[in-house]
Amino acid sequence: MSSSTDLAVRERAAAPRRPRAAGARATHRWRFVPWLMLLPGLAVVITFIVLPFGNTLRLAFTDATLLRPGRWVGLENFERLLGDDRFLTALLNSSLYVVCVVPFMMLLPLVLATLVSRPGRLMGFFRTSIYMPVVMSSVVVGLIWTSMLDRRGLVNETLATFGAIAEPVPFLTDRWLLLFSAMFVTVWMGLGYYMVIYLAALANIDGTLYDAAAMDGAGVVRTFLSVTMPGVRSTMALIGVLSSVAAFRVFGEVYVLTGGTGGVGGRNLTMTMLIQREGTGLQAQTGYAGAISLVMFVVLGALLVVQLWLQQREGRTR
Amino acid sequence: MTKHLRAPRRRALGAVATIAAGALVLAACGGSDDAADSGGGSGDGLSGEITFQTWNLKNDKFTPYFEGLIADYEDANPGTSIRWVDQPAEGYQDKLSADAAAGSLPDVVDMGPEAAYTLAQAGVLLDVAEADPGAEDLYLDKAWESMTFEGLGGGTYGYPWYLNTGPSFFNTAIFAECGLDTEALPETYDELFDAAEALAEACPDKSMLARMPAIENFGEYGVPLMDDDATEFTYDDATGVEFVERFRDLYQSQGLTEEALNNLQTAEVEEFKAGNLAYLPGSSYTLGDLRDTAPDIYENLGIGPRISNAAPNMYIESLVVNATTSNPDLANDFAQFVTNAENQMAFAKAANVFPSSAGSLDDPWFTEEDGEQETQVRVESANQVREAVVWWPPAFSSSTDANTLREQIAQAILGDKSVEDALQSSVEYSNERLAASR
User: Fold this and answer.
1) CA of B258: which chain A residue's CA is closest?
2) CA-CA distance, A64 to A279, in Å (whole number)?
3) A43 and A165 both lie in a single domain
4) pLDDT 10s per residue in chain B (438 long)?
5) In terms of domains, do A42 and A174 share one?
6) Closest residue in chain B to residue A71, using alpha carbons only
């Protein structure tokens, strides 16, 4: 062994081993800290999301009832779904809800946010007023609108007073009028929530862009289309996703407006109402309700994938 | 089954309850001595604690009755303890299902035949006929039969408790205004439909009916609801079709509004109270409710027997015993005690309902009139109970089967499908559910 090697060995031997080992142990110990901090959240997610989802998935392929675990029936529940008129009605109504409500939810709050984004007391009053329905329960809102849209409600009475109608408008009994009334209530309730999100996004748009647009002689509409909308494009995409999910899962508004029945002849049932009807109560058919839930999950998943794909494609083409 | 003792309805007790209070106290004080003869409360060597579940009965009106009842039982059976639990009746099926699924169903529970059927099917309830073969003689035959489920092998899964039925109420002011005879109120469905059509012609802004027929109405019309084995629904036969066609014809002649196709019972009551409806099928609570909340209508009230072509309908509430209770002897004995003749009589007087115990309807309370309208309604309703049938099949779900039936009838009335197809769809749906639950 050369003298230099001896020196190196001696240096290594003389090196302060204790602190290094303690450091390693400390590192080892701290490595678990992030997991420990994650644990409460993880426990909640596993208990209330992952396990119920797994259970729903299992139930969908069984003939389980509330009081019986059930046996494996393969795709039987899904075959039954295809022959169930109520399911097809519910799927149509929930899908229509997405198609009709989402565009309004993406555009109207943006217009409102643009109008009330300026400072001032009056603007503050409008912002608060528009946000007010958000803090109300959908059941309360539904009840208010039920009494307004009733055959003898405020809307019909007002229209009759001004001679606009000879017979009451069947807002709550006609299939399509009821569905559109519920959509109107949903939009009315959601405007404030999405408006607040847009207000935050508008604050991030560079003010000089508006100055430049003004110098170029752009009017209000041109500025809105060329500066505001591109500036909140990613927020619009987010709101599109959020409102699509919410619209497909609509329950409270339709439930209350139909008096909890699903409308005349059950023609206003939505997916969540059908799940509630089949999956609750002593005679609940949890297997069948699980199958409807799974279909709903797949439809929503597909909806989100399509939206994300469209956004990515748009991002690439810009 | 609809819960019958919810707060709004209890307002209907009024003077009847006041008079009954004295009798109730007397009954509660002296209840246990004769209990041995009339069922329950006589178990030698009973001990331990059980839980007794009721719905919406712990309040100023009923708490003294139940506390006295429990004290009597515990005094007569030293070493026993009854823990009384009461919950709001809203969503009681969901609460029961949660308890049953968790294996924590109370030892003795107040419930209707529909809930009892489902729990019995799951093996959660005691067959009381098997546990006590002599019990059957202590109750009215029809009450006992309504808790005997042919579809589950003929076992009896609950002691019959109280019954409820009521007369038909008519707004005679509407009858007079629209040219109908106030002295000849309808008593059968044919007479009712004829009157409804005449009313529609004379007064288009008023209606006779404001709700689709429910399954018990099919029974009252004379439609066979299930086969003899209670394994299949059969209400789509020619008589069922004829019944729905009368509703369709009435709708076409403007005698039914579109709202009526979707209305539940509460809307029907509201329409009657608002003076838009000429007929309301009532319960024993309805008269007091109308007197308190719709005095104008009360002044012009015509009262007749319940509309039926066959036997009139009644509802029943029972006490079931948990099959997995750790103290079956005590639970069974206590359930019999609560439903024995003496205690049922006291409760019937307090709650303005009818006892299911054998012989109780012969009490002067149910046979002698005193000129008061309340007494007249009670006596006539008691007569009706003697003929009445619990038409609602226990296997018919009030949440899904009932909704489907109403929806299918509405579609037929709107012309979306034929009446035959609508009833067939409803029957197929119910039979599918019935088969799947086996």
Assistant:
1) A173
2) 10
3) no
4) 334 443 333 333 333 333 333 333 333 333 333 433 445 655 567 889 999 999 999 998 899 999 999 999 999 999 999 999 999 988 888 888 888 888 889 999 999 999 999 999 989 999 999 998 889 999 999 999 999 999 898 999 999 999 998 889 999 999 999 999 999 999 999 999 999 999 999 998 899 999 999 999 999 999 999 998 889 999 999 999 999 999 999 999 989 988 889 888 888 999 999 999 999 998 878 888 999 999 999 999 999 999 999 999 999 999 999 999 999 999 999 999 999 999 999 999 998 899 999 999 999 999 998 888 888 889 988 999 999 999 999 999 888 899 999 999 999 999 999 999 999 999 999 998 888 877
5) no
6) B436
Q: Side chain identity at B200, as an amino acid letter?
A: A
Distance from C-alpha of A164 to C-alpha of B157, rounded to nearest angstrom: 60
3-class DSSP state of B148: strand
Same domain, A214 and A241: yes
- A230/A271 same-domain check: yes
User: For residue B43, what is the domain's CATH number?
Assistant: 3.40.190.10
Residue B302 main-chain phi, psi, to 5 deg: -105, 135
For residues B121 and B231, is the Cβ–Cβ distance under 8 A?
A: no
**CATH code where residue A290 lies:** 1.10.3720.10
Question: Pick from B387, B411, B426: which residue ends a domain?
Answer: B387
Nearest CA in chain A to B411: A265
Measured in angstroms, the CA of A151 and the nearest CA of chain B are apart by: 9
ipTM: 0.78
Q: Are residues A286 and A205 in the same domain?
A: yes
CA distance B276 to B171: 9
Smallest Cα distance from A213 to chain B, Å: 55
CA distance B346 to B339: 10
Query: In terms of Cα–Cα distance, which of A275, A281, A280, A286 is closest to A250?
Result: A275
Beta strands B108-111 and B48-55, pairing class: parallel
C-alpha–C-alpha distance, residues B392 and B424, integer Å? 19
Shared-domain flag, residues B291 and B335: no
Contacts of B258 in chain A (CB under 8 A): 170, 173-174, 264
Q: List phi, psi (to 5°) of A118.
A: -75, 150
Domain extent, residue B290, equals 172-312+397-436
Both A156 and A41 in a single domain? no
CA distance B96 to chain A (A): 7
CB-nearest to A261 from B101, B124, B262 is B262
Identify all chain B residues contacting A257, using CB atoms and an 8 Å cutoff. none
Query: Among residues B246, B268, B279, which one has the least CA distance to residue B412?
Result: B246
> In this structure, what token pair is assigned to residue B1?
């089954």
Domain with A261, as residue range(s), is: 76-317
Count structural domains, chain B: 2
- Indicate the pTM of the whole model: 0.82
Say whether B416 and A265 touch across the interface (CB within 8 A).
yes
Query: A219 and A176 in one domain?
Result: yes
The verdict on A281 and A179 lying in the same domain is: yes
- For residue B92, the chain A residue with the least C-alpha distance is A281
